[in-house]
Recover the amino acids of this structure.
């Protein structure tokens, strides 16, 4: 389950701050994102949607069932995207692994 602040921070870094770079040191530019996340302390499934610099998280009427594993999925469309780095960031976000998470954000190297 994801902490709400962590998912906000990930999305804001990708859409607003644009401070995530690929292995070639090019800025990753996310044009669209969509996903389903399990938010800590929420019984409902949460949909994540974003276009350019706008995004929204919305609880659905569908509750997670007690006997099923909660999943987190995110689909990104854009330019200079690096699947491996994005996957590491998302996994670090949903597992709240701070060390992995912070190594990919270059806060002092914001893309223009």
């Amino acid at each position: 389950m994801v902490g709400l602040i962590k998912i906000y921070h990930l999305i804001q870094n990708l859409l607003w701050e644009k401070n995530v770079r690929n292995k070639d040191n090019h800025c990753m530019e996310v044009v669209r994102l969509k996903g389903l996340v399990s938010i800590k302390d929420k019984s409902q499934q949460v949909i994540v949607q974003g276009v350019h610099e706008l995004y929204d998280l919305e609880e659905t009427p569908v509750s997670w069932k007690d006997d099923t594993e909660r999943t987190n999925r995110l689909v990104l469309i854009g330019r200079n995207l690096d699947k491996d780095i994005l996957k590491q960031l998302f996994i670090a976000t949903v597992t709240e692994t701070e060390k992995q998470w912070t190594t990919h954000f270059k806060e002092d190297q914001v893309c223009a």
Summary: The chain has one domain: 4-95. DSSP finds three helices and four strands in the chain.
